[in-house]
């Protein structure tokens, strides 16, 4: 009788731990999971699914980007901007990644407390947020530059930490 009770408790504990882990994992980029009604944005868009797409994303980031006063990001190079993946790039940059300091700080705090490694799409979006923060840091002056630089550093540390965890190396602060 005792071993049956112990087995039942172990199964209940295992089931509870599995369910709690699955449902407690916070969504880092909530906008990716609830597109605007007026938008044709796909649910949870991902830019990189092949090596060619990784190289294309790199080209997008190297191309000159334009950030409008309402924080909309576009690619200035017309040839690159006309590609199908450029539309996905604009969608992720304009509708998914955070572009305001409080939102970026919230993301950094979530990343710092996240157990395990990032999913591919979360890593991609965090890297794009890092690129955006670097761009804003370069354009800012004075106190604003310091605030953007601090956000840039916290995102870099979160990505570095994730890379170290995924490679199995010990992470040192």
Automatic annotation (TrEMBL):
UniProt xrefs under InterPro entries: FAM180 (IPR029170)
Pfam family, any one: FAM180
Keywords recorded for this protein, A-Z: Signal
Domain of life assignment: Eukaryota
UniProt signal peptide: 1-17
UniProt keyword Repeat present: no
Keyword Signal: yes
Protein name: Family with sequence similarity 180 member A
Source organism of this protein record: Myotis lucifugus
Gene: FAM180A
């Amino acid at each position: 009788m005792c071993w049956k009770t112990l087995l039942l408790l172990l199964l209940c504990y295992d089931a509870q731990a599995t369910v709690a882990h699955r449902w407690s994992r916070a969504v880092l980029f909530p906008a990716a999971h609830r597109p605007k009604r007026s938008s044709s944005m796909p649910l949870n868009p991902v830019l990189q699914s092949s090596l060619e797409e990784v190289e294309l994303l790199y080209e997008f980031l190297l191309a000159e980007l334009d950030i409008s006063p309402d924080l909309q990001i576009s690619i200035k190079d017309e040839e690159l901007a006309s590609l199908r993946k450029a539309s996905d790039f604009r969608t992720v940059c304009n509708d998914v990644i955070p572009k305001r300091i409080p939102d970026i700080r919230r993301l950094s705090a979530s990343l710092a407390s996240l157990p395990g490694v990032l999913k591919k799409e979360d890593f991609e979006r965090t890297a794009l947020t890092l690129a955006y923060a670097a761009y804003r840091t370069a354009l800012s002056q004075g106190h604003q530059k310091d605030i953007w630089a601090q956000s840039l550093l916290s995102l870099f540390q979160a990505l570095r930490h994730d890379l170290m965890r995924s490679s199995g190396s010990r992470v040192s602060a």
